[in-house]
């Protein structure tokens, strides 16, 4: 967990430093996913058998490309993921759970900011938000890993 936390912090820092590049990489990744799912939907449309089924699948086969739709999707992920992380951390209260709860609250704030600033900031904000989220997720993992490391292990008594 410690190595993963450190990797998240480093990756998050790189995303913030190259926010436009991180945004374009994210848009490119989601674009490919949308393209592949659109092609699969179109192929499935022509194998549906009836015209009503084909029309429905053809209409769903054209993905809404562009940064606007991706930013709305990403903002939704930040908001929902942040809510789950904050509520889960508060309910479980594992060691150093405050970091995970704070990370979740920060994700919700980032998601809301992303929606409020549409469409102007979508070019740079996606990469920046992912970077900040990764840094705080990494800090939460590092905190949890160090807390687990400090828990005393079972004592083994040997009789000689």
Primary descriptors:
mainly alpha, 0% strand, 80% helix, 6 helices, elongated, 160 residues
Describe the model.
There is one protein chain. The protein is mainly α and 160 residues long. The chain has one domain. It is built from six helices and no strands. Helix 1 (2-17) packs antiparallel against helix 6 and helix 2 (19-45) packs antiparallel against helix 3. The longest helix has 29 residues, at 122-150. The radius of gyration is 21 Å and the shape is elongated. It starts with a helix and ends in a 10-residue tail after the last helix.
Class from secondary-structure proportions: mainly alpha
Q: N- to C-terminal separation?
A: 37 Å
User: Assembly type of the shown chains?
Assistant: single chain
Q: How much is the radius of gyration in Å? A: 21 Å
Shape: elongated
Order of helices and strands: HHHHHH
The percent of residues in helical segments reads over 70%
Strand content: under 5%
- Mind summarizing the main beta sheet? none
Uncertain spans, ≥5 residues at pLDDT below 50?
A: none
Mean pLDDT: 77
Number of strands: 0
The total tally of domains equals 1
Please report the number of helical segments. Answer: 6
């Amino acid at each position: 967990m410690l190595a993963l936390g450190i990797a998240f912090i480093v990756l998050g820092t790189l995303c913030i430093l190259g926010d436009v590049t991180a945004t374009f990489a994210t848009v490119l990744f989601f674009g490919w996913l949308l393209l592949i799912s659109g092609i699969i939907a179109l192929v499935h449309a022509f194998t549906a058998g009836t015209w009503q089924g084909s029309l429905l699948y053809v209409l769903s086969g054209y993905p809404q490309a562009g940064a606007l739709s991706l930013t709305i999707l990403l903002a939704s992920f930040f908001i929902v993921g942040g809510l789950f992380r904050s509520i889960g951390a508060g309910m479980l209260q594992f060691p150093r759970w405050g970091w995970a709860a704070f990370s979740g609250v920060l994700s919700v704030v980032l998601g809301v900011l992303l929606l409020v600033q549409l469409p102007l900031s979508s070019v740079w904000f996606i990469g920046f938000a992912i970077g900040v989220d990764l840094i705080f997720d990494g800090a939460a993992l590092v905190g949890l890993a160090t807390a687990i490391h400090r828990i005393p292990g079972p004592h083994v008594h040997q009789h000689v």
